[in-house]
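Section 5: illustrative case.
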């Protein structure tokens, strides 16, 4: 398995940012459009989503209280039908006990309707992303148009394994006046969920 190097991430959300022009001076290296389903838990801020037909989980390793930077790592990517062993990891990420399960694995539709939809501590959000990627000073920089259900927003992000390089690039692009807000925090604020 390929070694995963956890990246430090800085991201913010809003209706738009004049500083995007500082990014757009560089060449776009990647454009990607996706539809994903995020699962928000009232008991956890782990990033739990379904993307490319995989249950995808990221968790914060470290959060720097001085700079606001967050270091995230991938915990799991599991396909459907999803097995009880993977569901144990999923529920740990939700911050919830694993419920009694009637069978060893669940196909996608049953997982969404039976396990997620009937739990009052969980909420699904349909997320559409159109992402424009750049490489600036070796950092991955992104501008994205996103929709949380029917709510349209913009997000800008800077990522790298070196936190000092992330901060330097954020400042260079004029983004350092904005708060660092990850996807889960942004969605919970949007839908009034305590976090």
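Designed sequence:
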């Amino acid at each position: 398995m390929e070694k995963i190097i956890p990246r430090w991430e800085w991201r913010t959300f809003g209706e738009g940012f004049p500083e995007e022009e500082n990014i757009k001076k560089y060449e776009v290296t990647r454009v990607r459009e996706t539809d994903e389903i995020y699962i928000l838990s009232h008991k956890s801020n782990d990033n739990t989503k379904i993307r490319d037909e995989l249950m995808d989980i990221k968790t914060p390793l470290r959060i720097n209280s001085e700079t606001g930077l967050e270091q995230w790592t991938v915990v799991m990517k599991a396909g459907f039908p999803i097995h009880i062993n993977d569901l144990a990891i999923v529920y740990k990420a939700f911050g919830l006990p694993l419920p009694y399960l009637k069978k060893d694995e669940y196909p996608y539709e049953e997982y969404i309707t039976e396990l997620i939809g009937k739990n009052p501590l969980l909420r699904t959000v349909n997320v559409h992303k159109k992402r424009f990627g750049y490489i600036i000073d070796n950092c991955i920089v992104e501008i994205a148009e996103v929709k949380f259900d029917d709510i349209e927003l913009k997000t800008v992000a800077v990522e790298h394994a070196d936190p000092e390089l992330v901060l330097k690039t954020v400042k260079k692009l004029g983004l350092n006046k904005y708060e660092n807000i990850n996807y889960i925090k942004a969605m919970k604020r949007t839908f009034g969920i305590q976090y």
